[in-house]
């Protein structure tokens, strides 16, 4: 009987270990509210793109992640939200001093006119900024 | 080895194979899933059809088996089993395979009923335990070394040898036992056995799907992981004989349920934790089944008839569990896949890699998920490798974090199903406690 009791104790310990390792929240998805400001890591370009995605997601009442997953299909509403989100991100970066005023203008113009997929993937170079 | 011993060994071998067939094909299910482009419910019918046919055949035979010579029942069963096994091996469509499996199950029901007087209750029970326990491992090895058809090709020679045993065996004079309508006293033990085998579906069918389809282990790897269950079951059999009858039966069923609860609560794709949980399931099985089998195989009620009844009830338990678990899993996996996509995108967007990598990979994720079947981890190597993951440690780390996040989401989807299987184990433990006077003498 002691061996049987030991096996039940082992089962209880195993379940305890599982809860300690986060079993109660396995697979939970907690998506951040895109309308709440949050810091981003990486270079200026990455911070602007991620902030722009957040602003666009907020505008579209969705999450940043759902917006990115839907980028395979485009709509005018989504494109308008993405451009507006990126413009706002550039304004914020300029206010923080991360983008010089000299460059902010051309960047805004690029955001208004460049293909949206190129903008979101950060495929922007100096040649793009100053045109052909 | 004497001629008699050889014949008993051949009978035991085909009995083991017939019991193994309840689960031997489980490790081949992912290949069948892909080969026949079907759903989880569709592929589960390859398992369900066999077990349902065994159950129906055996339960019908309870009323008839006393009229026939065991050699005839056994021989007819082996012949049908052999023919259907060959049909399974050459099946070109899922529905043909399911039909052949049904015929194979009918043959198994006959041969298992006829084998009991030809071998002995002890040899029959031991062969059945070995077969049921080793089935998944054997299926895994054959599937990986060859393919799923090898599972059936390998059985044919054993069935042919069983046919030889049928011709050469002599009927035991006690086998024609006549009608003894006192099977009622075996019903409580059989009901518990049915519930225990229903719980076993969680430990075998679900655990194998989780390890191979969701965690992407090979069939041999999956077989090694799941093999801890039969190993623990065999080890626990020695303990069962030293415990009071009810403690072994009720405690074993409860332990099986506890192991399934541990499988339900897996916090991640952790092989160590899964193997510990499977070991608990195996120990519970090894404790509960011997005592229940002794109570169910009642010579006073007619060994052949009581054996036939227990075959039917065991497989009915398997069918009831698969029929309730497979559709539940099939409904849980698509939303789990959606959550996995979101979680993976979140991990990717937060990863310390360049924006020129993360957004295109996130967009490619959607396509990868669309291509993957329900419950499978999508192939993420290409989007990452296209961007240099093989030589970029940060990109490789991001890929690994992403895969871990997806595996967690898919693992969580199995939770309700493991809990349902645990419910079968808990019901068996409770029933055993309620009817204890009928189980132990």
Task: Write up what this structure looks like.
The complex is a heterodimer of chains A (132) and B (441). Chain A is built from seven helices and no strands. Chain A has 132 residues and is an all-alpha fold. In chain A, helix 4 (76-95) runs antiparallel to helix 5. The radius of gyration of chain A is 23 Å and the shape is elongated. Chain B is globular, with a radius of gyration of 23 Å. Chain B is mainly alpha-helical and 441 residues long. Helix content of chain B is 78%, strand content 0%. Chain B has helices spanning 3-20, 29-35, 40-61, 70-89, 94-118, 121-145, 149-153, 155-168, 187-214, 219-226, 228-240, 245-264, 271-296, 303-350, 355-371, 381-385, 393-413, 415-434, 436-439. The A-B interface holds A 1, 3-4, 7-8, 10-11, 14-15, 17-19, 21-23, 26-29, 31, 41-43, 45-46, 49-50, 53, 63-66, 68-69, 71-72, 120-123 and B 239, 243-244, 247, 251, 254-255, 258-259, 261-262, 265-268, 270, 273, 276-277, 280, 283, 287, 336, 339-343, 345-346, 349, 352, 354-356, 359-360, 362-363, 365-367, 408-413, 415.
Morphology call of chain A: elongated
Proportion of residues in β-strands of chain B: under 5%
Would you tell me the overall average pLDDT of chain A?
84
User: Total strand count of chain A, please?
Assistant: 0
The topology string of helices and strands of chain B comes to HHHHHHHHHHHHHHHHHHH
Which structural class matches the secondary elements of chain B?
Answer: mainly alpha
**Helix content percent band of chain B:** over 70%
Radius of gyration of chain B: 23 Å
Based on CA atoms alone, the radius of gyration of chain A comes out at 23 Å
- The CA-CA distance between the termini of chain B, in Å, is 36 Å
Assembly state: heterodimer
**Number of helical segments with 4 or more residues of chain B:** 19
Structure characteristics:
heterodimer, A: 132 residues, mainly alpha, 63% helix, elongated, B: 441 residues, 19 helices, 78% helix
Question: What's the topology here?
Answer:
The complex is a heterodimer of chains A (132) and B (441).
Chain A: H1 2-20, H2 44-59, H3 64-69, H4 76-95, H5 101-113, H6 116-120, H7 126-129
Helix pairs in contact in A: 2-4, 4-5
Chain B: H1 3-20, H2 29-35, H3 40-61, H4 70-89, H5 94-118, H6 121-145, H7 149-153, H8 155-168, H9 187-214, H10 219-226, H11 228-240, H12 245-264, H13 271-296, H14 303-350, H15 355-371, H16 381-385, H17 393-413, H18 415-434, H19 436-439
Helix pairs in contact in B: 1-5, 1-6, 1-8, 3-5, 3-14, 4-5, 4-8, 5-14, 6-10, 6-11, 9-10, 9-12, 9-13, 9-14, 9-18, 11-13, 12-13, 12-18, 14-15, 14-17, 14-18
